[in-house]
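Task: sequence design from structure.
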């Protein structure tokens, strides 16, 4: 009989395991898991493996796909229809029209095209993000399966902003997705809400070792006058967060952040946004930046733990 490892707490499509089928208890990524046999679980695991292989193929054909898939998983996990603060729920399929999800229509369509039957959209998005990291040279990330799909978009703003008297505007967290201008205070508050420690948030931000963001360079005058959604979807020049190895999942993001802090960055080597730079402006964050710049294995292990927590 094949043994399957499934998260015990999974919001499962999985029927509750019969006590006799439970054979082993162990712990993976800090979560208690049960090992038991279940035909539905076996189908999901096979489907997830097929999707993982398909992502490897897609990234081999076009390495820039990896960043888009990872960003898709982040945006799905933190904006949840049930108001929880993390855990992929597939609500992203209803949220693509929102401004914060510019350019995520394509990776979502890719996931839907590659997704075998038997996987929820939430599982597929979470698996594709993990596989994209692995296909770019990052760690293999163990995640559970059995997430249920939301049936509607999640609210884009928090019920009540997270604020304290005397806050600067950049300290206040207002939205379910983080704003790129958040200060160190805002960034910490945001990821505390998501349930991550300083070390885990600094590791998760290392996702920006992959991928690019839009610039205004070479845009038509019409686009510069009126920055429509279409202009943003088709921006001709995208700047990599870090230019040394923008398609490789490695720790160069952290050494470039330290070079930025030392003012020894060469022009064009990195194109950070304020929340990246926040990681070297705060003493506790900076300690982890230094540790991840020194130790790629530490970065990989912490990223894998933080990602598994994010998509749960
Ligand atoms: C404070 C937190 C964050 C902010 C403000 C932020 C903001 C952004 C912005 C503005 C872009 C550029 C989008 C574009 O122009 O296409 C971007 C790209 C990206 N983000 Fe983040 N991000 C944050 C955290 C994360 C996290 C936690 C992950 C993943 C775990 C992530 C993964 C990515 C990836 C991979 C890209 C590149 C996408 C591509 O190449 O298509 N980001 N992010």
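Answer:
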């Amino acid at each position: 009989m094949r043994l399957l490892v499934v998260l015990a707490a999974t919001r499962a499509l999985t029927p509750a395991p019969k006590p006799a089928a439970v054979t082993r208890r162990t712990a993976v990524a800090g979560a208690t898991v049960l090992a038991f046999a279940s035909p539905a679980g076996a189908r999901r695991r096979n489907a997830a493996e097929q999707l993982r292989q398909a992502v490897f193929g897609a990234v081999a054909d076009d390495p820039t796909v990896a960043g888009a898939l990872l960003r898709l998983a982040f945006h799905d996990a933190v904006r949840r229809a049930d108001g929880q603060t993390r855990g992929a729920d597939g609500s992203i399929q209803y949220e693509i029209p929102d401004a914060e999800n510019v350019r995520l229509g394509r990776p979502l369509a890719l996931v839907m095209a590659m997704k075998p039957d038997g996987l929820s959209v939430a599982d597929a998005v979470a698996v594709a993000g993990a596989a994209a990291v692995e296909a770019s040279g990052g760690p293999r990330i163990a995640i559970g399966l059995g997430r249920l799909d939301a049936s509607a978009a999640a609210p884009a703003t928090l019920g009540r902003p997270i604020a304290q008297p005397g806050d600067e505007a950049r300290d206040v967290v207002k939205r379910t997705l983080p704003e790129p201008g958040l200060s160190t205070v805002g960034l910490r508050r945001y990821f505390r809400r998501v349930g991550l420690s300083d070390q885990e948030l600094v590791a998760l931000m290392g996702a920006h070792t992959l991928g690019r963001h839009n610039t205004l360079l070479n845009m038509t005058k019409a686009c510069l006058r009126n920055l429509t959604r279409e202009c943003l979807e088709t921006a001709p020049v995208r700047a990599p967060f870090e230019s040394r190895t923008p398609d490789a999942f490695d720790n160069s993001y952290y050494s470039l952040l330290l070079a930025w802090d030392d003012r020894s960055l060469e022009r064009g080597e990195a194109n950070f946004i304020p929340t990246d730079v926040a990681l070297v402006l705060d003493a506790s964050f900076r300690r982890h930046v230094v540790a991840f710049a020194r130790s790629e294995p530490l970065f990989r292990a912490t990223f894998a733990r933080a990602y598994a927590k994010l998509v749960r």
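The CA atoms of residues 44 and 165 lie 48 Å apart.
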